[in-house]
Amino acid sequence: MLDLRLIRENPDFVRDAIRRLNTEAPIDEILQLDEQRRSLLTRVEELKAQRNTGSKEIGKAAPGEERDQKIAEMRELGDTIAELDEEVRGVDERLNNLLLHVPNMPDPDVPEGPDESANVILRHWGEPKEPSDQIIPHWDLAANQGLIDFERGVKVSGSRFYFLRADMARLQRALITWMIDIHTREHGYTELTPPVLVRSESMVGTGNLPKFGDTLYHDEESDLWLIPTSEVSVTNYHREEVLEAGTLPRKYVAQSLCFRREQFSAGRDVRGIKRVHQFEKVEMVKFVEPEKSDDELNSLLANAETILQRLELPYRVVQMCTGDLSFVSAKKIDLEVWAPGSEDWLEVSSCANFRDFQARRAGIRYRPEESGRPQFVHTLNGSGLALPRTMIAILENYQQPDGTVVVPEVLRNYLGGQEVIGRQP
């Protein structure tokens, strides 16, 4: 959520930022309601001052008709104040609801562009394999080798669900454990096992609600939402808290199931496990001091890159332009791994700096110094990594002519020394 003062004092700056984001936001309505609210508050304060003066006069007045009349006037004045207070509450509610629909402001160095076509490739790592007839797409390879059962996934749950089988299930489990070990032992993160069902206010805190409710799974009876990523649970871990001086940064890593209502496009995006309703992901979340959040974003990105480098998977680093930023991001950098069988660059991590946008929505503050006035923290998050697309990259980069798949060396100890994944019975 943006600071209302920013919109009030710099409306043209906010309007220009929204134009750069290639989106819309109710800025004019917010300004009108803000003006109405401040006018009402001024009137309420004036009337309360009159009531205070009147109450003092009543206290000094002798019993009689004049005193009784003054009491009646103060009662009427109290009724008017109560009505105005209720009107202020209504305006506050409408104003807050509108503010929840205003996106975060992009950082000045975010490249401007209408959509993903204007994203900037910052660098490459590794040598991508050339696509060829000998490299089989993961959906065919995994089905042929009995690693993924797509047909039974559809039978049980419908389109875009699947079963991982035998060595494929073990590979995912090994990846998760290895990733978390790297992030906790080497990168200094604290591991959390988060709930996957959260309250509405938690979704509001991270910016998923109200704008993206139609992409989420919701149980209406309990008013609980299935998380699209553990960022939601972990960010709200410190909701409505004041973190004490000297305790930042706080860095957490969590693995969870993630649930999303994917809007499917025609073509190859609907094949395999690239876009699915349910998947697992390792997520990193940081709470940091504002002046250090740029450095923390670079560190977050480096932590995610470490995973890809040790898996020896070719990838590229892509900065999102204004038209491709998420609703909550001030700056976002993606890691896209190369999948030669799919002939595609697959996003496996989005590393983002939200500044104080989420912290304002979730009420997360810190004390810069002992007994100092609390300020909003900056929050960041990034995948470290998303499992389905990481496994796609392994299947398509490590496959051999006979259809078997070499296990990346760093994972072999986590698979009991196994070096090759073969056909599963």
Question: Largest beta sheet, briefly?
Answer: 8 strands, mixed
- Sum up the overall morphology in one term: elongated
Distance between the termini: 52 Å
The structural class is alpha+beta
Radius of gyration: 27 Å
Weakly predicted, low-confidence segments: none
Helix content: 25-40%
Strand content: 15-25%
Order of helices and strands: HHHHEHEHEHEEHEEHEEEHEEEHEEEHEE
How many strand segments?
18
Biggest β-sheet: strands ordered side by side in the sheet:
1-11-12-13-16-10-9-4
If helices are DSSP runs of H or I spanning 4 or more residues, what is the number of helices? 12
Provide mean pLDDT, rounded.
Answer: 94
What does this structure look like?
The protein is an alpha+beta fold. It has twelve helices and 18 strands. It has an eight-stranded mixed beta sheet. The longest helix is centred in the N-terminal third of the chain and has 35 residues, at 65-99.
